[in-house]
Amino acid sequence: MLKGKQILLIISGGIAAYKCPDLVRALRKRGAAVRCVLTAGGSQFVTPLALGAVSEDKVYEALFSLTDEAEMGHIRLSRESDVVLVAPATANILAKMASGIADDLATTALLATDKPVICAPAMNVRMWENPATANNIKILSDRGVGFIGPEEGDMACGEWGLGRMSEPAQIVAALENFFRQGLPLDGTRALVTSGPTFEAIDPVRYLANRSSGKQGHAIAAALARMGSVTTLVSGPTHQPDPAGVEVVRVESAVQMFDACTHALPVDVAVLAAAVSDWRPEQVPEDKIKKIPGAQPPGLSLVENPDILASLSAPGNTRPRLVVGFAAETDNIIENATAKRARKGCDWIVANDVSPETGTFDGDANTVHLITKDGVEDWPELSKNDVAGRLAERIADALAVTP
Ligand code: C5P
Fold it and tell me: Of 124, 201, 373, 394, which is most buried by a Cβ count within 10 Å?
């Protein structure tokens, strides 16, 4: 959600300003660019040097600095962002914003901006409860200013109550929600599985299957881009974590099953992992020794839980839409149609993975979408485009079955 977003962070003079370098790092980790404006009060708690280092940008402080105005006027500064975040927002800056006072760079930028403004207040509990502050919050809320927090807890001044600035992680989550607004999957939750599973034979060896995780990861990324709060449960892969997705890493099918159950309830589950059908019944604590001349050891296998069938079973936590994958090497449509009925899922995305297609580890995929209404043959597409098209279909389906 935050990838490529430009955030103007205005830091006013509260002790919570010490959290701002962490906040900047957390925002940048999610792909946002952050430009900081520091008030005179803010610079008592955090230095421009620290903020400049973590934002890798110039930190703006002075309204009448000739260099700043030549490089970047305060009007441009206030408009070249997707959102203006005031954190910490002191009682003083909130009062100035409510009254339209513009007596430094921060308040001038706030008055001049045409972008959404979100404040994370931080102040002593009495200051927060003071009718003057309450009135200013109401004025600003009525004007469309957004608020994150404050939280209840211990204050730097030794008192306890409402007034702590929200933690950086909460502010990041609130900004992600803000950018989700209006997207087709806003308000939904998604679960995606991806990659292979590894089934231990002993502490060193394992059984696995061919799956790069490219398709599953691309689907998680596409659902998140369309606004769904997405959890990706992934077996071992070399794929980078998709932006804006919560990634839970697992190894075995049993761990994947547990992580999926934990992620419920969701609106849609897309199970694209190539889950091992079986696992060794016994896993010795020590490596099995190769004894020269002796018979190779036998492997006794037991069946793994079927995550797709289990999530598709009727019940309170059944997602509104369950999508399975069918990797087939022959009779693709018949096998996949039978699989849809057997597993009880809503849709099956069937793909031909016979070795000559190069689907495994490749970038392209030719799939057929099997629903209760029949079969749709999709043209050959990149795995990213299959993901985008599937996410659009999912958004349509969820919109008609609220
Ligand atoms: O039975 P098969 O492995 O061919 O079914 C493929 C579909 O079932 C995929 O969506 C896969 O993620 C899912 N599956 C599962 N749990 C298993 C086996 C397969 O979720 N144990």
Answer: 394
